[in-house]
Amino acid sequence: MYKKIFTSIIIALSFISADALAQKGQVSKKIYCWEDETGKRVCSDAPQPESNKYDKTAISSKTGLKVGEIERQLTAEEIEQRRVEEEMARVEMERAEKIKRNQMRILQRYQSVDDINTFFDIKRDEIEKNIALSEKNIKPMHKQLVAKLSKVGELELEGKKISAKLHEEILKSKTQLDKQKQYIIERRNDLKVLQREREEEISIFQSAKQKQDYTLVE
Known about the structure:
- With 218 residues, the protein is α+β, with helices and mostly antiparallel strands.
- It has 3 domains: 28-73, no CATH class; 74-109; 112-217.
- It has helices at residues 2-28, 76-109, 113-157, 164-217; strands at 30-35, 41-44, 56-60, 66-70.
- Helix 2 packs across helix 4 (164-217) and helix 3 runs antiparallel to helix 4.
- It is elongated.
């Protein structure tokens, strides 16, 4: 008797499992539909190779409801265009994040525009001091070089040979003088950069402060 009951249970479970698998297969079954170049609606139980150039809608064969979409295969030009657009969006996002970080940094560092000007005035004064010192050093260096060149002129007029030592001293003096001149040029460029940075910091501060004040009012 127990053997018959056990057998009946096994058979019943077998039917239940088979029915469940069938239902599962039915649920997962999809129909794909798209419109061809003539506007005709075409449907298939699997995406066809010729349909790659069309956008497709996936529909459940059980419920008849839309369950997803498949984008058409893009051309090489469209793929490149999408890549360019995504790259531009990434760059723009990074730029916006950088602006936001700069605003936070400036608001934390300064309390007012006067604070910004004070900070940059100190840096400007230091650069101008270095420039003045270099310009002061240039005068005796230039004077020494002129004296050595005059000596060469005298020796040539007398028909005498210019010593290797004098020649080396002239080259050394000219190199040092050129370095000082280049240093001054670079520091003057630093002043221009510093002024641009000052203006940028003030602009960012004012923009961030205005946004902060507006948020507080809200």
